[in-house]
Design a protein that fits this description.
Elements (H helix, E strand, L loop, with lengths): L4 H30 L6 H4 L1 H5 L12 H8 L6 H24 L1 H27 L8 H16 L1 H5 L1 H13 L15 H25 L4 H19 L2 H24 L1 H8 L3 H29 L7 H30 L4
The structure holds retinal and fe (ii) ion.
The site of retinal (RET) has 18 residues, from helix 6, helix 9, helix 12 and helix 15.
Enzyme class: oxidoreductase
Cofactor: Fe(2+)
Organism: Haloarcula onubensis
Length: about 350
């Protein structure tokens, strides 16, 4: 992938900012659980709650500008209107789907997040970490399956009861009994089968990358992150694990990507002004983050069983995230296309 010259310096500045906080936070979070301590459940919801304003929700609130910028254009009214229409049509249809078939909508949420978080990490590897070991499209598809499966499948294998509880909370805003349709996914034999198939894809993808690598530096990074995340999602209870990962891993990497298509931010980063670049992002993301909060409040009134407890509010928030993630994935896939991430 060709990187335009002004971006080279910006990328150098951004790389540690995009990667290090995620590595550090996840490594620290593993420690108490690895030595057998427990954290109060109230605390475990904190990162997901914080994601409403910090990094998480805002990382998608620049979608209306992102496609045009990725194409090297200034986002004009028509470009913004197209993205708003995409959100209304795709997000709107999926929101209706949650009311009509909540269990199926939940299953789709997991599949879509699997793809989306996988594609986010593929970008980080290819464009930020210069992963030259990922040469073919097959390897890149394998990497998306591997990286997305870490947050979506490993918790199902390690913490099925938590997973079911969260599924029940989301589906329960609509139809409490509907969650029974998801029961097969929690059966030990089904989980074992999924775990074995997934393990085979992890081993095959990493082995192929090892064979194809000239200089093994980027392969080592890929393998270390993958195995580190297996340990992380196997040890840290999922609400906490996903809350931290969403903010400091997925969203931070995506914000770094957004800064690299914003000429003003790229210029600031080229001069080492990291804070100024992130301030530009915050300014761009602010209006639609506010709109999102309004829509989330509206959703709370619209669902048959409005949320009352913190876990139920977090469940409703996740339904809202699901609805906005589907159009967000279309935007990010267009960015992938323009930037040749799957080449
Ligand atoms: C919290 C949680 C879960 C699901 C979280 C999901 C699916 C989050 C998706 C977020 C997205 C798509 C953000 C946008 O980039 C699981 C896996 C059921 C396990 C239990 C805890
Ligand atoms: Fe995202």
């Amino acid at each position: 992938m060709g990187v335009p010259a002004p971006q080279t310096a910006a990328r150098e500045t951004l790389r540690p900012v995009a990667f290090a906080p995620g590595w550090a936070a996840l490594a620290v979070a593993v420690v108490p659980f690895a030595v057998g301590l427990r954290l109060p459940p109230g605390l475990q919801y904190a990162p997901l709650a914080a994601s409403v304003l910090l990094l998480g929700l805002p990382h998608g609130a620049v979608d209306h500008l992102a496609v045009a910028r990725t194409r090297g254009r200034r986002p004009d009214r028509r470009a913004i209107a197209r993205v708003v229409a995409l959100y209304a049509a795709v997000g709107g249809a999926y929101a209706v789907g949650w009311f009509l078939a909540p269990a199926a909508a939940f299953a789709l949420f997991i599949v879509v997040t699997w793809f989306h978080w996988g594609q986010g990490d593929l970008y980080a590897l290819v464009a930020l970490a210069d992963a030259e070991h990922l040469r073919s499209r097959a390897q890149r598809v394998g990497t998306v399956v591997v990286r997305g499966g870490l947050p979506m499948l490993v918790p199902l294998l390690a913490f099925p009861a938590w997973y079911r509880r969260v599924a029940t909370t989301l589906v329960g805003r609509f139809a409490p009994d509907a969650v029974a349709a998801l029961s097969p996914a929690f059966r030990p034999d089904v989980r074992l089968g999924l775990g074995l198939a997934y393990g085979a894809v992890v081993v095959a993808t990493l082995a192929l990358g090892y064979v194809r690598a000239d200089d093994r530096g980027s392969w080592r990074l890929d393998a270390a992150e993958t195995l580190g995340l297996v340990a992380y999602f196997a040890l840290v209870p999922p609400v906490l694990a996903i809350g931290l990962y969403f903010c400091l891993w997925h969203s931070l990497r995506h914000i770094a990507r957004l800064l690299l298509v914003d000429d003003g931010a790229t210029a600031a980063l080229g001069g080492g002004a990291v804070t100024a670049a992130f301030a530009r992002f915050a300014r761009d993301a602010f209006p639609l983050t506010l709109v999102s909060l309004g829509l989330l409040g509206g959703l709370a009134f619209a669902v048959p069983n409005p949320p009352e407890t913190v876990p139920e509010w977090v469940g409703l928030y996740l339904v809202f995230i699901a609805v906005v993630t589907l159009p967000h994935v279309v935007v990010v896939t267009l960015m992938d296309e323009v930037q040749g991430i799957w080449a």
